[in-house]
Amino acid sequence: MIEPRTVPGVYIKELNAFPNSAVQVATAVPVFIGYTQTNMFQGKSLKNKPVQLNSLTEYVAFFESGASPGPTIQYELTAVDPAKGPSPDITLNGTGYTIAPVVSTQFYMYNAIQLFFQNGGSTCYVISIGTYELGQPKKDDFMPEGKPSVFDILKGVQDPTLILIPDALLFASEPDYYTLMNASLNHCNDVQSRMSLMDIWGGDKITDPLDFLAAQASKTDPINSYRNGMTSPFLNYGACYYPFVNTNVVSANNITGANIKGGFAPYADSDTSTKAATDIKNNVAAILALPNTNASQASAIHNALTATSPNYQNLMKLVSLKINCLPVAPAVAGAIAVVDATQGVWKAPANVGLISVQSPVLNIDDDLQSNMNVDAITGKSVNAIRPFTGFGVLIWGARTLDGNSQDWRYISVRRTLIMIEQSVKLATRAYVFANNDANTWLNLKSMIENFLTGVWKQGGLAGAVPADAFSVFVGLGSTMTAQDILDGYLDVSVLVAVTHPAEFIEITFQQQLQKS
């Protein structure tokens, strides 16, 4: 280009007329941390590496290499004396049995991912900290002594805005669960860009409201234990849900005798009507005990018993119910993604129906929830999952764990501020090392005001006019002193009025005199 004013002629000079714009960051991108079938993909290790996924198909391709995705959870039957207790889960051939999962085979990650996508989730991250071969989940796999924890790994990943660790609910030690959850809240406070979604430890244990009331009276209920265990000072970065839910995520077609430890011959009907059923009853345990049971042979056994054995049918129904009892936070994460996409992050993720959820394990009514939603002693609110006739199973709570805080009581307020903070932070990077003068201040102020005006127009900020919704201050004598400028500080002050959910709607009726 010819140097201007050296040759006679007309020259064009283009100048930027508008400040940089701030763009809203993604708000509903969870990261799931836990165990997978494999963490090798195309010869490369994915252990402790965040992997972005957009569908269940992608998750299976990366982390579930077996013919049957997900863990084969096995259940063990134990004969009980009804006179001595506990109450049997099922009675077969006149004998009562309790049924419990073999802890080394039970993992939640795969079904949690399914719940997330079925409830409308679109993008997520997965960090595999180990495979099913490690056995029962334990805290040291997430926070190994002397090595980086999963939260150290997460600090280098910008996109995730929600943290879920469903496998932690399977720890042998309840205090270990609280240690990990408190560490999660501390991490969220460090990065200030995400929240942690949690479930109550033992959220599947109490299924009867009367038992729950009795546990509350003696302060042995799971919610009281959770509140005592959560000691992090950063409660506003967490939200908790109760109870677990009964789902239909795992199809009955995927549940067979392979889910019964040691084979199921002892539980087949004692009185069989066909020779085929008798042969199966006598030989199935031996067949399943072989190291490489023929798949078609096992399938034939399953089909034959399903057709001939009422005991086997009842046992498979019970196993299906147990396997499909899952923590609800992954479904909530999917619902949050839908609410954010359709109404905005400032809409409380509550009064929303959950897909693939048939019922909560405990039917919570208004009386039971009163001590969950508002806790006068600790202020640690827990959001209920409740069924409503004609509406399905709904998320019936919108509070963070910091339920008594006037600033951070609501999930939508916390997440809206995270979105605004991170969006402005990323846009402001363009001005690092810019001249600390009035031109830069004006550009910064204009950029932030334009962004907040857009948020206000969408309904994210409260106020009849933009001036009522937000204020931005920057400049010498306003937010900075002359010494601040010499020291290289550029301070901006932003005030915002975030919309709050209408949590309690009160309608007053009274009679009036007849007027005509």
Question: What distinguishing features does this structure have?
Answer:
516 residues, alpha/beta, Rossmann fold, 8-stranded mixed beta sheet, 3-stranded antiparallel beta sheet, 16 helices, 16% strand
What do these coordinates show?
The protein has 516 residues and is α/β, with parallel strands linked by helices. It has helices spanning 56-63, 109-118, 139-142, 150-154, 174-191, 209-217, 222-229, 275-289, 295-308, 310-323, 329-342, 366-373, 411-428, 438-457, 466-469, 482-486, and strands at residues 30-36, 40-41, 44-45, 51-53, 75-80, 90-92, 95-101, 124-131, 162-164, 195-199, 238-242, 245-247, 325-326, 357-360, 383-388, 392-396, 470-474, 492-496. Among the domains are: 30-71 and 106-250 and 325-411, Rossmann fold (3-Layer(aba) Sandwich); 437-516. It is built from 16 helices and 18 strands. The protein has an 8-stranded mixed β-sheet with strand order 4-8-1-9-10-11-15-16, with helices on both faces. A 3-stranded antiparallel β-sheet has the order 5-7-6, with helices on one face. Strand 15 and strand 16 form a beta hairpin. It is globular, with a radius of gyration of 28 Å. The mean pLDDT is 88.
Number of helical stretches of at least 4 residues: 16
Please give the CATH architecture of the domain at 30-71 and 106-250 and 325-411.
3-Layer(aba) Sandwich
Characterize the biggest β-sheet.
8 strands, mixed
Q: Structural class per helix/strand content? A: alpha/beta
CATH domain class of the domain at 30-71 and 106-250 and 325-411: Alpha Beta
Quaternary organization: single chain
Mean pLDDT: 88
Shape: globular
